[in-house]
Amino acid sequence: MSFKPHCLKLIFLLACAEHCLSQETEQIDADVINRGFTGTESPEGVWVSQTAHMVLDSRLTTVFLPIVYIVVFAVGLPTNAMAIWVFLFRTKKKHPAAIYMANLALSDLLFVIWTPLKIAYHFNGNDWIYGKERGFIGLVDPQDADRVTVSKATADTLRSSLTTVFLPIVYIVVFAVGLPTNAMAIWVFLFRTKKKHPSAIYMANLALSDLLFVIWTPLKIAYHLNGNDWIYGEGLCKVLVGFFYGNMYCSILFITCLSVQRYWGVAHPLSQQRKNNKVAVAVSVSIWAFIWLTTTPLYLYNHTAKLKDPNITTCHDVNIIHDLEDPFPDVALPYFYFVLMAGIVFLVPSLVIILAYILLLSALGNAMTDGSAGKNRRKAVVLIVTVLVTFLVCFIPSNIMLVVHYSLLKDGVVNNGYGFYITTLCLASLNCCLDPFIYYFVSEDFRDHVKNTLLCRSSRTVERMRVSFSSMKYSRKSKAYVSESGNTQSSTC
């Protein structure tokens, strides 16, 4: 028997198998080159394949992914914050499962607070601008003194989805939520709240401050949707900037007053109500006068800049520099203004809020023997904690970035993190949406007034209902109010 034919067949099969394996390897390598996000470094930058370019420019990464992250942020932030709040202030018995769930919620929250950067990254065409050259510095064009030239990075950012899609979406949400809720809050405080206690006075002024900013946001929305082209003149640009920062500083001061008042109400529950109301009114008038005076410098220098390329007029975006070797004279006024305001109207109130919170906890601990008093004091603590969280989320990033931005700008540093700066300012504007919900969920009187207003109940009707139900007893068996004569009435109105 000859083995030669069998050896030839075996060699032929091995050769075919090797050929197939080599073709499969080449196909895999080709797929990796075409699909894999691998780059080849060159002196001009990093080269990627055409397929990678297509994916990076596709709607998958510039539309779908940021929408998913927006949903994650919109749902994850309030739910995980609420979970942590419930565990800290509502759960008396800290069993192991609750401890693990609280830590899980904290882990989720620590990720969620950074998702705005991820959203901005994808909306900006997958272009990471936090740490790159993004200095919004404009130089006067030597050929045309009325025009300003900016770098390619600045022009690309002004055309990007970050400033023309993401920012207007945020301001649309601020307007859609902040306008009706703050208007409703002011109406309730003015026409439904009979007893004007100091906290109500401060909350009404805070709602008024938010409303005065919200009514100007349509101009901000139109500006960004128009490709960051301001068409309303220098005067309205100054008004918009003045109301924006005026609202931010005014909100900080009224939140500070609200925190101090809550501590005072816990520590001195028997203080004269009428005297406290007069003090609250005087403090509120003083704050409005202070804000009116301190926002005046914002009207003393121009905020618009006519760019050569792109051919647009920006509002409070591009800082015009005449001499890059000595940029300080061109930004001296805003630099001193924002540094001073950050120290006086941000840092000092922050310390006052922390001190008021510590003193309130101390006063709360000394009065826990009284059940009803302890319940009222716990409500005050919940309000301060909720307001404090809103204060920290909305105002700390923006005020820190204001100081950092202008401190680097005065030294001519191009890498001034402008993308993160404008993102934090958007975050600050969300305070207008959060304050009314703070009133609703924390203040029981405000919640009842809003409910009666939405049900179109007049004050006289509400009073008759209160008197009627106070003379009845609630039956758990029939789930209805039963009068002393035995007649049953429904608990709904």
TrEMBL record:
* GO CC terms of this entry: plasma membrane
Which UniProt keywords are given for this protein, alphabetically ordered?
Answer: Cell membrane, Disulfide bond, G-protein coupled receptor, Glycoprotein, Membrane, Receptor, Signal, Transducer, Transmembrane, Transmembrane helix
* One Gene Ontology term from the biological process aspect of the record: blood coagulation
G-protein coupled receptors family 1 profile domain spans which residues? 79-131, 181-439
- Localized where? Cell membrane
Look up and give the organism this protein is from.
Oncorhynchus tshawytscha
Task: Give the signal sequence positions.
Answer: 1-22
Name of this chain's protein: G-protein coupled receptors family 1 profile domain-containing protein
Chain segments annotated as transmembrane = 63-88, 97-117, 165-190, 202-219, 239-258, 279-301, 335-360, 381-406, 418-442
Give one Pfam hit by family name.
7tm_1
PANTHER family in the cross-refs? COAGULATION FACTOR II (THROMBIN) RECEPTOR-LIKE 1 ISOFORM X1, G-PROTEIN COUPLED RECEPTOR
GO molecular-function annotation terms? thrombin-activated receptor activity
Q: How does it sit in the membrane?
A: Multi-pass membrane protein
Q: Which domain of life is it from?
A: Eukaryota
